[in-house]
Amino acid sequence: MTKTHPDNAAALHLDRRTLLMAAAAGSSLVGMSMGLPQGIAAATAQTPAPLPADAAAPEQQVWRVASDPTSATLLNFYEQVYERPDIADLFSDPLVRLSKNFEIIPGAATEWSGSQDGKTWTFTLDNTLMWSDGNPVTARDWIATFRYAAAPDHAWDFAWFWSGDIVNFTEAFDGSVPPDQIGVRQGANEFELVFETVNPAPYLPSKMLYSAPLSAAALEATGPLYSNEPATAVSAGPFILEEWVRDQYLIYRRNEAYTGKQQIPMQRIIVKFAAPSTFFTLYEAGETDYMENPAPAELQLVESDPELSQQVYQGVGDFRVDYLFFDINTAPFDNLQVRQAFSHAIDRDAIKAQILGNLGNPSYGFLASGFPAANQEGLAGIQNFDPAAAKQLLTEAGYPNGEGFPDLELWLRAPIPIEQTVAGAMGAMLKEHLNINVSLGARDEATFTDAMNAKPTQILFGYVSYGMDYLDPSNMLGLWVSGGRHPYASPEFDKMVADANVFLGAPEERIAMYQEAERILVTDVPAVFVYYRTPIQLIKPYAKGDALAPDNNGIAAIHWPGFNTGSTVPEGLYIGSDAPADRA
Amino acid sequence: MQTATTSVPIPRESAEGRAFTQAPRTAASYAFRRFMRQKLAVAGLVIVVVLVIAGFGAPILAPGHYAEANLMEANQFPSRQHWMGTDTIGHDFLSRVMYGTRTSLMVGFAAVAVACLIGIPLGMFAGLRGGYADFAVMRLVEVMTAFPGLLFAIFLMTVLGAGVGNIILVIGITSWVTICRLMRAQLLMLREQEYVAAARAMGAGEFTIAVRHLLPNAIAPAIVAITLAIPTAIFAEAGLSFLGIGINEPTPSLGKMVADSAAYIRVFWHLGLFPTLAIALIMLGFSFVGDGLRDALDPRQT
């Protein structure tokens, strides 16, 4: 069994076996250096984290955020990923977590390894973890969770994430094999979990960021929604549901039965539901401790205020890219020239100058600057702003000056103000440069996501964004593989991505393969890539801790994935003694 | 038999002579005079006329088309070039407010027309027929009343989708009840009048009686109700658009403009001020006119 820290991968002699492990970002070395238990240990309940000298009293350790109630119908990741509050996923630890330097570190698994062929992955579970109902956390929980995820009857909106990776997951989701036939099983004992993949999957451990389990016992006894009511809530994570008044507020309290590794200062989390347009007002009034994505006008206010301007943090978020997408199987977007015309009609520099400011940068591809394999400069000439070329292409496609082109509705997914503004600007650009009428149709999260994921898709023309699920090009580009989120299907692109995913040679060659794949994608224009986000966060000055200290790249912000068990953020955040006393 | 007639000549210049030679005043002219004596009603009428001219004349009077935008001129405050400034995308905001007023008025008029098309026939049917017909219509009215109007409208908009046509339909469907009940009450009273019995005795059919005799006599209070229903419908449109389920961009809607301004109002105050003022003026104008009509058409003052 070979275990390698990802940072060391490039420096090692890269034989097949080593590289599999390296790309997997496995890190038992990290685990061991952290002094993690290697044998079966007695479970001990959570003891309060020792607070720094400048911290407020324990009862003041409360983290308050605002969240859009329309996107908060369930707490269950395995029910509806896109309809959870801004803070969720606190009820169990995923197998791995992300450090603020985007390194994969142990979560519920203390170590992991891959087989010679890279198709069997074994995770050793932390045997001290306990559910709050007294049951130990075992492989049985993951098996039940993944079987539930693959069951077709509840149509999980994130099923695509595991399709094509875990053996029989796609087939189970399609209903052609029973969910108990998927490639998730117990290993040598109940603390060993095995995943079998269709192809070599060196990135699989990274994907395990999305593996926080449900309680098999609660799933069986109460059903999948057990965590939505305090009376039935069970948790193996650092928090448990205390109260949820729909559309008003949600409170998590410290799970005193938590036996995991994380030492978390916060005692309670309060999520206040409000319209996104009021988030800034709530923050300014001291009702919340944190907000992200202020509207451009709000950012102007912040930057001109001597106090507020000291509360601005800027990070890379999840390397999110905003883009227009088409149903390329339906007229008029089945015509490449039409899609190319659209791509040349969007003036990204004007959007940056007049709307985004510091909130984002023009994007000419799907991999944001800073993301592995990003090639913004190399792609800049393919979908560049060129209104003359746009008009010419539309004319050649049979729509001179937009004549005969149907009026379009641009679907938006529960847009926040900046998305609404950018969409409006793009609609105006298409009218100005191509004489095409575009109306904006906002939809709620569920309606939009269901329509987008439907096969065939129900959205002809839409505007949406996507951010990474793990730090590897296989994730971002995997979105465009045939059968993925959008109807784009290019055998050439699919092959390039598939080859790169399992490539065991030099990392730079693998990167080049992804860059070539991205070039194919951008050239085929199934989407017009508009900008990548450089998110702004506002954080109260009394919030302190290592989570806000600069990372290895000098970036100080609450790093993705934010305040949940897949992150080190909860451990690295506390409320200072300078916080106002009344923080309900 | 010969009948002798005598006539007393009346001097043409006498007061009595003028009175005699002028056409007798109609109820409408009395109502008009009473309406014009109310300053608020006249002010409301002026506001409505100005708004109608500004709204429906927008294609001619507005500085530009509502969808025209110059992103490089975004977020400008009111100036000589842009009297109401520009919005976050670079639309001329005066044009947007004028076209938005047109949208509001169009929705207001059309939705009330839909409500009338449903409410007046149903109310007349119930009032004239009575019995089971009245029972059935009134139960339907009660069912409609049981639904909170806004929630029902949101439900329908979610089902039907956004758009001017759908919002007109939805507001019309949810606002016919008042007119229906009013017409029913009028008909219950009027159907016992002697002229109805006379018409029936002369062989007039029920439809003829309803349309030729009852409707003209019942319409005055309905006109007041309709006038007051227009601002309500406009406000409903503004509300639905504010909630994001009304009218799609770039078609301007005053309610949506107010909603969109929320995130910017601390800096770009003009984005919230002007559409809010337009909504307020529309509401005020129609309310004043409606109040004035109610007083003017009140038969007790005839």
Give the SSE layout.
The complex is a heterodimer of chains A (584) and B (302).
Chain A: H1 16-23, H2 28-33, E1 62-67, E2 96-98, E3 104-106, E4 109-114, E5 120-125, H3 139-150, H4 169-174, E6 184-186, E7 192-196, H5 204-207, H6 216-221, E8 239-245, E9 249-254, E10 268-273, H7 279-284, E11 290-292, H8 296-304, E12 312-314, E13 321-326, H9 336-344, H10 348-356, E14 360-362, H11 376-379, H12 387-396, E15 408-413, H13 417-434, E16 438-443, H14 445-453, E17 461-466, H15 473-478, H16 491-502, H17 507-524, E18 527-533, E19 536-539, E20 543-544, E21 574-575
Parallel strand pairs in A: 1-10, 15-16, 15-17
Antiparallel strand pairs in A: 2-3, 4-5, 5-7, 6-7, 8-9, 9-10, 11-19, 12-19, 13-17, 13-18, 14-18, 20-21
Helix pairs in contact in A: 9-12, 16-17
Chain B: H1 15-21, H2 27-36, H3 39-56, H4 58-61, H5 93-129, H6 131-146, H7 149-160, H8 164-174, H9 177-190, H10 194-201, H11 206-242, H12 254-261, H13 270-296
Task: Please tell me about this protein's structure.
The complex is a heterodimer of chains A (584) and B (302). Chain A is an alpha+beta fold. Among the domains of chain A are: 6-53 and 74-80 and 87-221, Dipeptide-binding Protein, Domain 1 (Dipeptide-binding Protein, domain 1, Alpha-Beta Complex), CATH 3.90.76.10; 321-533, Dipeptide-binding Protein, Domain 3 (Dipeptide-binding Protein, domain 3). In chain A, strand 6 and strand 7 (192-196) form a beta hairpin. The radius of gyration of chain A is 24 Å and the shape is globular. Chain A is built from 17 helices and 21 strands. In chain A, 26% of the residues lie in helices and 17% in strands. In chain A, strands 14-18-13-17-15-16 form a 6-stranded mixed beta sheet, with helices on both faces. In chain A, strands 1-10-9-8 form a 4-stranded mixed beta sheet. With 302 residues, chain B is mainly alpha-helical. Chain B has a single domain (51-64, 86-301), classed as MetI-like (MetI-like fold, Orthogonal Bundle). Chain B contains 13 helices and no strands. Chain B has helices spanning 15-21, 27-36, 39-56, 58-61, 93-129, 131-146, 149-160, 164-174, 177-190, 194-201, 206-242, 254-261, 270-296. In chain B, helix 11 (206-242) runs antiparallel to helix 13 (270-296). Residues 1-7 of chain B have low confidence and may be disordered. Classes of the chains: A alpha+beta (584), B mainly alpha (302). The interface between A and B is medium-sized, with 34 and 26 residues.
